[in-house]
């Protein structure tokens, strides 16, 4: 095993200095951010009407991150992605530091809203830049491993971050967890200063952002496999977020309790981590097909919630869902990063993010009313079946079903003339 690790360090993605610094920056920031949801939740819940206020604060961050991501993708294709990420990290350090100061001083929670909006806006610019930067700092053959490494650190942060935040909240208060997140963004910005990629080529007359958005949309809509999978996840995310994030804790409260729900979430995070480690060593021959089959596992814990087979079965289903979602994420990002032209990559990733996540606020709003009308358990069970169906539906497209990575690259580098 030690020999294998040495060979991987010598020839894998981590052998490249640019990726090492980017990976270190990303790992530091996700571990810091892993503490924020728990720390912020408990800090807000201490305020009057905290239960209602928390939902509004989360919405204030989510909406700008979704609504501005298309502009963020265009900016990332227009300017240097490494510097855009660094500036975003510095901005996030400032906003998180301000939130920590508000919490620690006991200031009115109303001041959290503009800071939450700023955080969401910064995320909208950082996300497409980070996903688009990966193929600039590793070779095409190393994309799968690089994405697996990034997903592994994110999964580990989901395991360790909430635990660390819980300890900080219990001993020092939620504000210190958010302050550590601010520090993590500062350290990440320092790491990104060591990443230097070539400046994007400047045309004689730089096109406007509106022109770049149209150009990105034209490319996106011409690629049926890309928008078919994006549309599938627009529907999957409605069900997943509504059932798992909203109804799941309510079902847990009525049955196996918060401690059991915590164990379920931990096992899901272990599944995320295990898949990330496995995908460092494997490259799937048909990434879109195998990725969507893996994504179908997201329906399993929803079915288990609705069928009520017991906590052990639910934990197993959650672990499989975590495993499947990471396999999909790694293969999907690697396919886009290798096959989509570099000068359009961040815009395509932004349209993917926008289409996949724009439905999430709808899920949060409608989950409880639908659950009360039809019953929490039937909604969860049927939702799980629909998630499996929706994940497999893009396989009706031949390219999703049969294309290899070289075939995707050949097809997506030369988009068809005309519309979809």
Sheet of most strands: none
CATH top level of the largest domain is: Mainly Alpha
| Ends distance | 48 Å
In percent, how helical is the residue content?
over 70%
Mean pLDDT: 82
What is the count of distinct domains? 2
The 3D shape can be described as globular
Poorly predicted spans: 1-5
Structural class: mainly alpha
Return Rg in Å. Answer: 21 Å
Order of helices and strands: HHHHHHHHHHHHHHHHHHHH
Number of helices: 20
Which CATH-level-2 architecture of the largest domain?
Answer: Up-down Bundle
Count the beta strands: 0
Name given to the CATH homologous superfamily of the largest domain: MFS general substrate transporter like domains
SS strand fraction? under 5%
Q: What name does the CATH topology of the largest domain carry? A: Growth Hormone, Chain: A
What does this structure look like?
- By secondary structure, the protein is mostly helical.
- It folds into 2 domains: 183 residues, MFS general substrate transporter like domains (Growth Hormone, Chain: A); 198 residues, Growth Hormone, Chain: A (Up-down Bundle), CATH 1.20.1250.
- 80% of the residues lie in helices and 0% in strands.
- The protein contains 20 helices and no strands.
- Helix 2 runs antiparallel to helix 9, helix 4 crosses helix 7 and helix 8 packs antiparallel against helix 9.
- The protein is globular, with a radius of gyration of 21 Å.
- The N terminus is likely disordered.
């Amino acid at each position: 095993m030690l020999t294998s690790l040495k060979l991987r360090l010598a020839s894998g993605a981590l052998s490249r200095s640019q990726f090492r610094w980017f990976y270190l920056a990303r790992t530091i920031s996700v571990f810091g951010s892993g503490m924020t949801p728990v720390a912020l939740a408990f800090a807000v819940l201490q305020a009057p009407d905290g239960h209602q206020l928390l939902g509004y604060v989360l919405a204030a961050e989510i909406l700008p991150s979704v609504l501005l991501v298309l502009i963020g993708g265009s900016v990332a294709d227009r300017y240097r992605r490494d510097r855009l990420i660094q500036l975003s990290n510095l901005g996030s350090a400032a906003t998180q530091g301000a939130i920590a100061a508000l919490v620690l001083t006991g200031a009115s929670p109303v001041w959290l809203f503009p800071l939450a909006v700023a955080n969401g806006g910064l995320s909208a610019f950082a996300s497409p830049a980070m996903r688009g930067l990966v193929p600039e700092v590793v070779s095409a053959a190393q994309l799968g491993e690089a994405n697996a490494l990034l997903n592994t650190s994110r999964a580990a942060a989901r395991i360790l971050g909430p635990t660390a935040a819980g300890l900080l909240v219990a001993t020092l208060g939620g504000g210190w967890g958010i302050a550590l997140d601010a520090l993590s963004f500062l350290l990440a910005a320092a790491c990104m200063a060591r990443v230097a990629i070539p400046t994007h080529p400047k045309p004689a007359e730089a096109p406007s952002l509106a022109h770049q958005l149209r150009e990105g949309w034209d490319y996106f809509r011409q690629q049926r496999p890309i928008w078919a999978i994006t549309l599938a996840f627009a529907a999957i995310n409605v069900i997943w977020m509504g059932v798992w994030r909203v109804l799941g804790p309510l079902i847990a409260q009525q049955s196996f309790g918060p401690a059991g729900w915590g164990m379920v979430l931990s096992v899901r995070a272990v599944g995320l981590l295990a898949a990330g480690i496995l995908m460092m060593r494997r490259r799937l021959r048909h990434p879109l097909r195998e990725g969507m089959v893996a994504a179908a596992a997201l329906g399993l814990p929803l079915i288990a919630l609705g069928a009520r087979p017991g906590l052990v079965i639910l934990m197993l289903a959650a672990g499989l869902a975590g495993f499947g979602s990471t396999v999909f994420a790694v293969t999907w990002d690697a396919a886009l990063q290798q096959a989509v032209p570099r000068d359009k990559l961040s815009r395509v990733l932004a349209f993917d993010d926008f289409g996949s996540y724009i439905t999430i606020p709808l899920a949060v709003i409608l989950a409880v009313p639908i659950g009360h009308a039809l019953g929490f358990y039937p909604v969860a069970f049927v939702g799980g079946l629909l998630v499996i169906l929706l994940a497999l539906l893009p396989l009706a497209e031949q390219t999703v079903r049969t294309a290899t990575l070289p075939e995707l690259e050949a097809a997506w580098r030369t988009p068809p003339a005309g519309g979809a």
